Amino acid sequence: MNHGDFEMTSTDNISPQWIEVQYQLYQENPLLVAEEWRGFFQGFELGMETFTSTKPDHKPAAVQSLIRRYREIGHIYACVDPLTPCELNHPRLQLSEFGLNDQDLSRQFATNNFILPNAPLKEIVAVLQQTYCRSLGVEFMHIPIPEERSWLQQRMEGSRNQPKLNKEKKLFTYRMLQQATKFENFLHRKFVGQKRFSLEGAESTIPLLDHIIENSAKLSLQHAIIGMAHRGRLNILANIFQKPLENIFSEFADNETFKIVGEGDVKYHRGFSTDRQFANKSIHISLASNPSHLEAVNPVVEGKSRARQDHLAGDGEDFVLPLLIHGDAAFAGQGIVAETLNLSQLEGYRTGGTLHIVINNQIGFTTLPVDARSTCYPTDIAKMLMSPIFHVHGDDPEALLQAASLALEFRMEFKKDVVIELICYRRHGHNEGDEPFFTQPLMYEKIRNHPLTADLYKAQLLEEGFSEAELLKIEQEIDEALNLAMDRNPLQIEEGFLKHWSKVVREFAFSPIPTGVDKQVLDQLSQSFSKLPDRFAPHPKITTLLKKRRAAVSAGEKIDWGTGEALAFASLVNEGTSIRLSGQDCKRGTFNHRHATLNDISSGKAFTPLSRVADQANSKFSVYNSMLSEAAVLGFEYGYSVETPHGLTIWEAQFGDFANGAQVIIDQFIASSMTKWDRSSGLVMFLPHGYEGQGPEHSSARIERYLQLCADNNMLVANPSTPAQLFHLLRRQIHAPFRRPLIVFTPKALLRHPLCTSTLEEFSGGSFREILQDEQTLSDCRRVILCSGKIYYDLLQHRQEINCNDIALIRLEQLFPLHGELLLKMVKKHGEALELFWVQEEIANGGGWDHLRPQLQEIFAKNIVYVGRKRSASTAVGSHRLHQLEQQRIIEQAFSVSLERV
Ligand SMILES: Cc1ncc(C[n+]2csc(CCOP(=O)(O)OP(=O)(O)O)c2C)c(N)n1
Q1: CA–centroid distance, residue 243 to ligand 1 (Å)
Q2: Phi then psi for 752, rounded to 5 degrees?
């Protein structure tokens, strides 16, 4: 790293030397300097005339500036890069920069209690250099809160940023370093040519992490949830998670059998969890499974952490620590990093501060920092949180321990994110088969000759008086453990589903789940969620809406979508199920249908009626307007859901298609985590969908995308067309014995469509129906139209208008898994030699068609006629008029006599 070119703020660029030159010019001829400087020097000379008579002493103030300067920019001159010789000359920290000189070194100055009330300048400088310019550079002066700055200052300056380590701890640190080193070495020799994404070059990560985990336990943390990428993961599993070495070796030998459907995942992506015991404290540590997509796991770890915090009584932030380990290139490059940082202090998403470790090996695959970021440090994005950032020399494990202690204590004290940058190098190529000399010959020449961290630390310990024999003993013990494990069979490890998953079954089944709720209960619930606190007055239109909701339930008919949803929520919280709903503007609801949180028009105070219902049943109803992100928020809710099998976690997209900003979370976690990692989730995604002539970007939630991801009963994809169906669908999510992500295409225009209502009867019994039969009795049916969602109502109205009674309308409410047997039965009810049509409003390359067509053809052993929009590169037309013409054509064709078969 080269900090030589570091530029300071514009005023800092004006050095005393420059001012000196300007002043000389001014003395020669005032016209030689700029006008503003002319004024400045005039004032200065005037001042000097006044002051020289009293001989002011500017040096105490200069010393204060010097102290401040070290705190501010000491990190730039700190010795933190193993590959670059340390700069001894710190131009901006020279005494002369402050108008001081060598004669002042022995003079006593007031320090403002920085070490002692007074100290010789020499000592002040020594302390500052030790604290801020050795192996630990600290950025903290950007923190705007004085208490936080002085908390750090006192601890750092008081200790000179050196940890106090006893002999035992030093030996243990050596052991950790050697364990990290020898583990990689052993794999290298025994499993030649296999990818392992070695930690070599960053072996200090192991003593660093161990110290964090141990200190976490000591600080009463009960859980640490860790997210990281592939580099060093196996080493961390072995040496931090203490996963039995024989199991890791057996995975290398690739002789595992999978208990689950699918192919599992490569060993450097899978998660693990275990309990670590330290003296009389225990801590559960979990490593989240993650995909190759760097940093995508970050919000998932946050969501998991928040869920565990919420499950713990009291202030969960004190008991659960999220810990994220990043690569330098990925931390600077991936947008989801900034998104996740932005969740840090938000009410619905905060986790009491995350501890970040950025392993800066100064390269990303073959890309150097100069091409990987525009910032000085890879950690600069974290400054958005005003977090302290510790930059530490990777070959100085003791400095890392110091940073770790400070970082963890700071997080616990201030509940904010903290960052440790471990500056190191990558000893091999990107993976062990890669040749780094192809692209970075000079850097790798340096690395080839660079001693191992463990050897450097050994030399330090020998110098400090440790005996060669005691260090050798440690090395032999590690070798022996590795060799013994190689000869052992893998152990049966119960990889931890937390206890609350024990009653959940893995298999999906079609059997109907009774989800009806007694009418009287529903009536009472609707009273509760329509009732407002005394002297609470929302906008009059909202009051009317609440009254209408209540009246509909009371009358037992015309219950609309918003009310159906509220009844589903109320009935679940009433049964003790907690609900968490998050998404952009989801308190009110993008389309004004929800109003889960009301605001008093005079005071602005908020009130969430369903929270009161939940309080009475000892559950929780939490609704959060999220920040304007899809990826991080959906990732967060996914993480929350995997920790909360008995709660209902819902993420709502503003419009369904915005979810493609979170595609990595959908593809890599939601659709495939069951198959890859044996982790299922009951997360619900609400995706507003429907062609209403609002243009390409507001019509389609991309039903086809989700269906393409469907296999092995991995997800439930539903397009419910009535409020009662939504009610049963949501309740099924909790009452079913299995957990699967549920993708729900939710309506927009149907929220207020006069036909899209249900009776109370429909809520009070039965269950979610995957397919809805035609409610009308038809004579001599000649055609069955299969459809899904909103278009049903258009078809229904048209059928009435043209007085048609020989065409049946059957609705597919659940598109995946498709209940083929039931569908066949329902169609057959209308006769045998029928025409079968699939009618959709989506484009032909969207909606359900491409996915359903082969299945329908197989079920019915005949061709199905397609009616819908043509294939298109864009989801919908921009013109409202064109949209209506298209819609009209679709409806007419659906009922027309003959059509070309597709
Ligand atoms: C989102 C994403 N893009 C690209 C890749 C391919 N890739 C794997 S590792 C890597 C370099 C990562 O560099 P860095 O973050 O510095 O971590 P390091 O591998 O150096 O530990 C790249 C580009 C990926 N895994 N994920």
Answers
A1: 25
A2: -125, 15
Q: What is the pTM of this model?
A: 0.92
Give the relative orientation of helices 453-463 and 468-486 as an angle to the nearest 10 degrees.
150
> Please, which pLDDT band fits residue 625 given cuts at 50, 70 and 90?
very high
Residue 815: strand, helix, or coil: strand
In angstroms and rounded to an integer, the radius of gyration of the C-alpha atoms of the chain is 33
CA distance 750 to 723: 10
Q: What tens digit of pLDDT does each residue of 332-346 get?
A: 999 999 999 999 999
Distances (CA, A) of 795 to 445, 725, 746: 73, 19, 19
- How far does the centroid of ligand 1 lie from the alpha carbon of residue 328, in Å? 9
The atom of ligand 1 lying closest to the CA of 361 is 20
Asked if 454 and 173 touch (Cβ cutoff 8 Å), the reply is: no
Phi-psi region of 264 (alpha: psi -120 to 50; beta: other; left: phi over 0): left
What are 532-586's pLDDT values in tens digits? 999 999 999 999 999 999 999 999 999 999 999 999 999 999 999 999 999 999 9
| Neighbouring-strand partners of residue 419 | 356, 389
Q: Where are the beta strands (DSSP E) in 351-496?
A: 355-360, 389-393, 418-423
Which residue is closest in CA terms to ligand 1's atom 7? 365
Nearest to 799 by CA among 817, 781, 820: 781
What residues contact 635, with CB distance under 8 A and at least 6 apart? 296, 297, 298, 299, 300, 302, 303, 336, 340, 662, 665, 669
Residue of minimum CA distance from atom 9 in ligand 1: 365
Q: Which residue ranges have their beta carbon within 6 Å of ligand 1?
A: 231, 292-294, 327-330, 359, 361, 363-365, 426
What separation in angstroms does the CA of 420 have from each of 156, 225, 393?
A: 15, 17, 11
Give the atom of ligand 1 at the shortest distance from the alpha carbon of 664.
1
Cα atoms found within 13 Å of the Cα of residue 655, Cβ hemisphere only: 14
List the residue whose alpha carbon is closest to atom 13 of ligand 1: 364
* Residue minimizing CA distance to atom 2 of ligand 1: 293
Q: How far is the CA of 676 from the centre of ligand 1 (A)?
A: 20
Q: Which protein residue's CA is at the shortest distance from atom 11 of ligand 1?
A: 364
Q: What average pLDDT score do residues 787-814 get?
A: 97
Summarize pLDDT for 433-445 with one digit per residue, the tens.
Answer: 889 999 999 999 9
Most confident region among 290-304, 499-513, 769-783 by mean pLDDT = 290-304
pLDDT tens digits for 451-488? 999 999 999 999 999 999 999 999 999 999 999 999 99
